[in-house]
Task: structure prediction
Amino acid sequence: MNILFINGSPNKNGNTAALAKELLKGKTYETLNLTDYKIYSYGQQFKEDQLDEVISAMKAADVVVMGSPLYWHNICGSVRNVLDRFYGLVENGELRGRKLYFLFQGASPEKWILGIIRMKLRKDLRERC
Ligand SMILES: Cc1cc2nc3c(=O)[nH]c(=O)nc-3n(C[C@H](O)[C@H](O)[C@H](O)COP(=O)(O)O)c2cc1C
Result:
């Protein structure tokens, strides 16, 4: 089983990576740091954009764990961009069949944030992946 951890934090060895390490203890997994990739906002079109590389890595995995530090009570920008860019792309079922998990790391997380994020992810992704 191929497990891919996608780290949305700019800190490759920061708290988000540490949480993933704990969560995936005893399992072999690859890490993809979004900070190494140019992923523009939905609608922007630049030839150096690297979303395709991230999607290819996701396709090669059976399980994808997407980790985000909490920024302003929400998902960080890099993960947000990837999710926004799923729009249209994943609708045709390209990533169907994979398990997708999210983990969130915050300095002082509050429970209500999870409610909001869960609702958002369910609406945006459940029907599409
Ligand atoms: C711009 C910014 C906004 C943040 N907002 C929150 C927040 O709303 N809630 C929270 O719990 N932590 C917040 N934090 C703290 C980070 O989520 C926390 O330090 C996290 O552990 C960083 O993960 P990393 O070490 O993987 O980068 C914020 C940090 C930054 C840089």
In short: Helices lie at 15-23, 51-59, 77-86, 111-126. The longest strand covers residues 63-69. Residues 73 and 113 are 6 Å apart (CA to CA). The pocket of flavin mononucleotide is lined by residues 9, 11, 14-16, 69-73, 105-109 (CB under 6 Å).
